[in-house]
Write a structure and sequence with these properties.
The structure holds two protein chains of two kinds. Chain A is an all-alpha fold. Chain A has helices spanning about 15-35, 40-60, 65-90, 90-95, 105-120, 140-145, 150-175, 175-190. Chain A has two domains: about 1-95 and about 130-140, Up-down Bundle (Four Helix Bundle (Hemerythrin (Met), subunit A)), CATH 1.20.120.1200; about 140-190. Chain A is built from eight helices and no strands. The longest helix of chain A is centred in the middle third of the chain and has 26 residues, at about 65-90. Chain A is globular. Chain A starts with 13 loop residues before the first helix and ends with a helix. By secondary structure, chain B is mainly α. Chain B is elongated and about 60 Å long. The relative contact order of chain B is 0.13. Classes of the chains: A mainly alpha, B mainly alpha. Chains A and B meet through helix 1, helix 2, helix 3, helix 5 and helix 6 of A and helix 1, helix 2 and helix 3 of B.
């Protein structure tokens, strides 16, 4: 039996309901990342947020990007962040106050920023197409044409940047051996 | 007829909301790794906007995904170097809290 066009009782279409669900999860997860006290939970909520954003990409017809999001963000960056959390976790850090003293002005500025975004972005005038339902799946042809056509130089530079970042990361992570010995000597002098 | 998911503006508003949340986290959190997570949220918010433009504006078809791919690559590089720096500082200072990195204040 086919599904009805809209959600029963409420009259919201399925696409709208999905957008509200994914957007709500993304915003709630982001708020949890920013406002939460326990940093491990912040990291796990970040994974939830990134997953919801991958769902938004699928809704926008960019399935290849959702795959990249899951692979790169959820698979690599989140794990890296969780490892860094575990490596830098000290008993004092999570129990202390977790906001700067400038938290209130920061909240005001961010609220102002959100207001400006809502007014300017929601105002329209973008010459955008209006779809019945969600945008159609785009496939990879257009993206590949753009990536290996006008953006070829940027693509190559990004690959060099990744290589440099990996080498730099290894160097930075192995650098403090000397500094660590110096730090220990300083502690002994005290 | 879809009221939300078929229009460009809701995606942009979601993106702006996420960006604002991320900017608040970057300005307000004390933990360096929390700040980095906020940066990741902001990058993802920008990605949503870019992909939405690519999907909804006919002149930009295909370019949104390409641009977002490049942003993801740069974000990966940024996370690698950022976390390596944080861990390197942590080994010397024994704290991840940025307001205690005050050696250069004197």
């Amino acid at each position: 039996m086919p599904l009805p066009d809209t959600l029963p009782l409420i009259g919201i279409t399925w696409a709208d309901a999905l957008f509200m669900l994914l957007g709500g999860v993304a915003v709630a997860g982001a708020l949890g990342v920013v406002l939460g006290r326990d940093i491990i939970r912040n990291g796990l909520l970040l994974i939830l947020t990134l997953g919801a954003i991958a769902g938004i990409y699928v809704m926008l017809g960019a399935a290849i990007l959702a795959g990249a999001q899951v692979l790169v963000y959820i698979g690599a960056i989140s794990v890296l962040i969780l490892f860094a959390i575990m490596l830098t976790q000290s008993k004092a850090a999570p129990a202390k106050l977790n906001f700067q003293t400038q938290a209130v002005p920061a909240a005001l500025i961010s609220a102002l920023l959100a207001l400006i975004f809502a007014v300017t972005l929601g105002g329209g005038g973008w010459n955008a197409t209006v779809f019945d339902g969600t945008p159609p799946p785009e496939g990879t042809r257009g993206a590949a044409d753009a990536l290996f056509g006008p953006y070829l130089l940027a693509f190559e530079v990004a690959s060099v940047l990744l290589l440099a970042a990996v080498i730099g990361g290894i160097y930075l992570a192995s650098l403090p051996r000397a500094g660590q010995i110096g730090a220990e000597e300083e502690e002994e002098r005290r | 007829m879809s009221m939300i998911a078929g229009h460009l503006e809701p995606y942009l508003v979601l993106s702006g909301l996420l960006f604002s949340i991320g900017s608040f986290g970057f300005l307000a959190r004390r933990n360096a790794i929390s700040m980095l997570m906020s940066v990741e949220i902001m990058l993802n918010a920008v990605n949503i906007a870019v992909v939405a433009f690519g999907a909804f504006v006919p002149a930009l078809a295909g370019q949104g995904i390409a641009f977002a791919m490049l942003i993801i690559a740069v974000a990966a590089a940024e996370a690698t170097v950022g976390l390596a720096i944080i861990i390197a500082i942590y080994r010397n200072r024994k704290t991840p809290l940025v307001d205690e990195y005050d050696t250069m204040r004197q």
